[in-house]
């Protein structure tokens, strides 16, 4: 128990130094794996004790129900963790792209200021002529 906690803490500190989204995804995966292992061990011990005390058929049905519930938990937790990871990933991407978009906007504004309005008008007229020519053909 103590060793696993220390390992978790080391991985947390490492992932924190990397990025928040990675840290969260690591935390989620660690928590999920721990929960699953605990659930599995509990179900195994229960099935063992039940098989000793109860009849074979009852213990089998119980273990089946337990495994089914476990599989459901896994199926539910996997997409949840994946969706959370993607959400954090997108958030980080947006945070990263905000700086980039700001730079791009600045350059675009500079270009539009440099370009004369008459040049834009000429372009519009040309595009109109082209459209007319295409329709005539």
From TrEMBL:
This is Uncharacterized protein. Residues 95-137 are annotated as: Disordered. It comes from the Eukaryota. Residues 96-119 have a biased composition (Polar residues). It comes from Oncorhynchus mykiss.
């Amino acid at each position: 128990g103590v060793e696993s906690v220390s390992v978790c803490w080391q991985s947390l500190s490492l992932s924190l130094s990397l990025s928040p989204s990675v840290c969260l995804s690591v935390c989620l995966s660690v928590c999920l794996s721990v929960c699953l292992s605990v659930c599995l061990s509990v179900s195994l011990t229960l099935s063992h004790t039940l098989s000793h005390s109860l009849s074979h058929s009852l213990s089998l049905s119980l273990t089946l129900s337990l495994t089914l519930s476990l599989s459901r938990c896994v199926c539910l937790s996997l997409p949840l963790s994946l969706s959370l990871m993607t959400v954090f990933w997108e958030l980080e991407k947006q945070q990263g792209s905000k700086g980039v978009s700001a730079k791009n906007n600045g350059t675009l504004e500079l270009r539009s200021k440099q370009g004369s309005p008459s040049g834009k008008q000429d372009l519009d007229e040309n595009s109109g002529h082209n459209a007319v020519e295409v329709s005539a053909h």
